[in-house]
Input
Amino acid sequence: MKIALNPMARGLAAVALTALLSAAGGAEAQVPQTAYSWIGMGTGSGSKCSTYKMEIDVTVEGSSVKGLFQQQGREQRHFEAVADAKGAFKTKATVGGGGSMDVSGSIKDGDSNVVLDGYCKFGGKLIRK
Output
């Protein structure tokens, strides 16, 4: 059996179907986002490392890990990584003068951490915001 719809009815049916699919897709696509931070002083072999203060902010959405970090008196920098099934991540962050810092860490309930390692080391236990 074939049902013929006039153009207006077809248009309304298309709008209704689009709205239904959008609502279903939108509910499925929502992934909770979690934010963390660490503020502290550097460590390392350099004599000035212990005088450098750093703030690191980390946002996790699914397995995506994004971070912003800023050493006091310097430009804000960023990194992006993908956490593995155990929550571990590792990447590099570009810093001034074409250099880079190794970034590593782990996102786990109650035991999240981050470490930036370059001219000095910065990081430790992340505090949930």
